[in-house]
Amino acid sequence: MRKRGHFLLLGTLSLKQVSISLAPIPRKRYPNIKSTFNAMDASIGKLEELSKKIPKDRRMRTGFLAVETDTDPGEVFNSFVRSDLAKMSTLAEKIGGDVHDQMLAFEEAVEAETGVISYAASVSMPPRDDLIAKCEPLTDCADDAVEYNRDCDPSDPKKHHFQALADLSTMLGWVVAPNTVKHVKEYNQVIDLECDNILSNFIQLNCDPVHSDYATAIKGFTKQLHDYVVEYHPAGLRWNYLRGAAPEGYHVKKKVKARKDAHPFLDFLEIIDGPVAEYVYHSDLLGGPVAKQSRLVFGAFCKEYELITRAAVLDKGAAHVSRMYVMPVMYEIAEVGTVSEEVDREDPFYLHLKVCHV
């Protein structure tokens, strides 16, 4: 296989020299140059359509074309869970004792989570250490609620009360989970089981309906939390989507003033500077093979931009000349796929790499 440097060198040669230097390239790697060009044309067409959808105000948002909102996202979260949380609080107070104390700690955790959601909506994603520091009030309150379950006597008939609320407190950790939907779905199933155990201990609990109502309220809260995350944060905690938010550490890009006769694929360069740069930024936060692959993806986009700008001023030449311009792009794309092949399927980031490869 030719080294990348050889391809870069070809760009400085004359067409006569190029035709000679390309002779040794095995044609079997690209048996149908027409199909290759068709695939490139299709990709360019899609990118052209994509470029028309770039937001006017490029502020490094977590979601490409993320929908802005004027409503405090923390209040949206509260609207989902407020009713069931109030029921849980009232019933826990009736039960009394450590159940009530655990509920007070849980309510503080919910309040802290509301603050994290509101904060995330107004800024771009901070470094991981800063994010952990911002979530400390949430984790501290959640740990306090979990502690009641650790201290519970195994023979206590209310042990499932403590277990259910401890799991629900841990479920609030979806804000830092790598897969938010999977996180809340799994905890939803576990908490449902604990609530069923509360109902099965009805006799040991003196047949007091307050306990069954408490279990039902916890189930209701869990379902509402699950539905909220699936609807609003399916790909992770959303950042910087409150209207008028000013991202920390970033400046709004100045709009490029293009000439009237400028090549239409100037928009393609704006894609590189916008969503592709954002993808690389967040990949760097994850590090490891994800960061490595993102750099290769960025390189592929840059090579494709070179191809586009050259094609704008050159007539379509012979197949071997056209291949000279296409092959650096194909080489970069092939390199992207090798990263996922180097990682074990059990790696937590394997699917990240595979999706990007596809």
TrEMBL record:
It comes from the Eukaryota. Gene3D superfamilies: Adenylate cyclase-associated CAP, N-terminal domain (1.25.40.330). SUPFAM superfamilies: N-terminal domain of adenylylcyclase associated protein, CAP. It holds the Pfam family CAP_N. Residues 77-237 form the CAP N-terminal domain. The keyword Signal applies. GO terms for biological process: actin filament organization; cAMP-mediated signaling. One of its GO terms (cellular component) is cytoplasm. Residues 1-21 form the signal peptide. InterPro entries: Adenylate_cyclase-assoc_CAP, CAP_N, CAP_N_sf. Keywords: Signal. GO terms for molecular function: actin binding; adenylate cyclase binding. PANTHER family: ADENYLYL CYCLASE-ASSOCIATED PROTEIN. This is CAP N-terminal domain-containing protein.
